[in-house]
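Q&A log
Question type: sequence-to-structure
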Amino acid sequence: MEIKTSISEIPLQTPPADEFSAADVTWTKLSTSEHHVDDVALIPYARVEAFITGESNNAEHPTRFHIERNRKRERGSLKEYKNDDYLLYRMYWCSFGPENYTEGGEMLPSRKYRLNTRKRAARPQSMRGCTCHFSVKRLYSRPSVALIIYHERKHVNKLGLSCHGPLDRDAIGPKAKKVPYVCSEVHQQTLSLMYLGLPEENVLQAHIEGVQRYSGPNQSLDSASSQYIQKMGMIIKRSTHELDLNDQASVRIWVEKNKKSVFYCQDASESDPFILGIQTEWQLQQMVRFGHGSLVAAHSSFGISKLKYPLTTLLVFDSTNHALPIAWIITRSISKTDVLKYMKALVERVRNFDLSWTAGGWIVDDPTSQLDPIRELFSCPILFSTWRIRRSWLKNIVKRCRNGEIQCEIFRRLGEIVRGVWRRESDPIGDLEVLFQDFVDQVDFVEYFKSFWVPKLEMWLETIRTLPLSSLESNGAIEEYHLNLKQKAYEDSHLDSLQRVDWLVHRLTTEIHSTYWLSLHSFESGSFPDVKERYTNSTSWYRALKIPDQNVVFCEEGRFCNFAKVLSVKSNGGFRTVRNLGSEFSFCDCDWALKGNLCKHVIKVNNVIYERKKGILGTSLSYRSFKQVIYELLEKPFDGAICLDESLAWVSQVQERVLRLNELNFKGVEKVVSGLEMKWGSKKERTFVGNKAVVLTSFRSRGQKRGLGFKRSRRKRKRVSRL
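Response status: OK
Response body:
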């Protein structure tokens, strides 16, 4: 478009309609020292009101325009004037701006110190930072002509997002006061049900029941709820992860809009890597609730080969020991400096919420994880989970070896190499060479193992030897979260979106977050029985508890190790065979286990072995690690030294906590509480129990003999004259 330099070159326009808008006018680029380069147009001054009315009736962004600035000159006041000097100057601004009263918005500095003399919007709280505004100049040289200067034609905020109207996903509409109150719990419940794909009728019924719990019966509730569900459905359909074509700019816009859900953000540069830490308010509550004094697990390096940046998830275990995500960290850096940055920000965030919060233990699943920041910030013991190495080995053995007996034997031999790390004469590399010679015909598996695992096997085995190992139940919970995350993250048909960070952030904070919120909510409230049952039976550990003990039959075989048969509950008369008993490397022939997963039959057989005390069949890696810690502890204190007394005191305290924990796990909270002795205190003690002690301090002022902390008598003194 050609840029004009003088108003005399711009034609005068008169649209025929009674009301017209910017779409009915041909705009010209004008470049002057005052206006720089703006879209301008000349119309008759008498038709300015028709233009303002037409702009206000915009279908996508209906609004009103208020006068933000107003200047006036008298005729004859200028002896010399230019062709663009004004007789009357007014700046019209959209009534949804320029202030931003939304969450995280900013007000103009001038608004805080002057009286509000103009009527801008019907409700000041409806201002959402809209930047749409234009100016109208009644020309001094031609009073019958008005020059319209459009500074910003789009109804967007500073981030470039639609901030009001039908295209705004956060718009509430003018009838918000008549809509029944929808609390955050009901709102999140409705979103979760819609993300799961439930029919609209079921979502509407659940929404009405949730609103009635808080606001009671209401005649207009059905119609209002129906409109609310339709609006939420439109928001979900129109929501997109691409807030900008540039992925980095899109993520930056999302961070600005969701500051409460971000605990750390660092843009990528030449010296610093990209780091984004996400934690919603609900996740913070679950971290305080289930993570205080308990275990926190790290699910690391998810999508390292498919996603643009790998994903690390921090997990806690709820009351049923299911894994709940409490934070997501998106970064490729594993350096100590970068890990310390976002871990410190997370600790500050959770301790601002609860100052007494502390972790009871930390589980890592990657030997390359930085342990020093965890020890420095959380001051808790660190455990290692072997679910990743077990899953990878079993999955590739089944994939690259066709014979079932060979699969079982290779898996058993690899398990023996791992179980022998605590032996002083162990030689894992030598044992691997013997394994490769014995199965030299399995070329595909041997080449895979040599290229992928042999270079880093010593690092994994050293981590297993030096750190305590987590149990089968926690390994199964972490693995179940991995499977759910993999299913939700990779089900998108757009393959190009895997290389965008904004897509991953959108998927985590919408569908995956809503799934876990609804699962925990349905389990605790019992509102959705199907979701509750699916959540309860989601881990292999709970599915194993439903198998009766009499369904497990132990057998013996000459060539291979002892094996067990588990009667299948679903298929009548069907058996599942479990070999390599008594360890994490047990081999089952069910379809779920052949995919590399920890199945319920393996867990059930190992639990029965523990209950029947069949020690000859072996023990799990976590139990062996526990015994190794005890053996090393026995060798440390010298007999007769004072450190023996201190060690005895610590061990006694730990023994008491372990016994209480086992009692809670096997008996349950109700039986333990019912067995406690009831103690009564005095009325004064019951009244003041739990109240913080008030420390009284005395500050002496001039002429004051008593401190402010002493109780003063409120009785009036009698004057001498009255006596």
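Response note: DSSP finds 23 helices and 18 strands in the chain.
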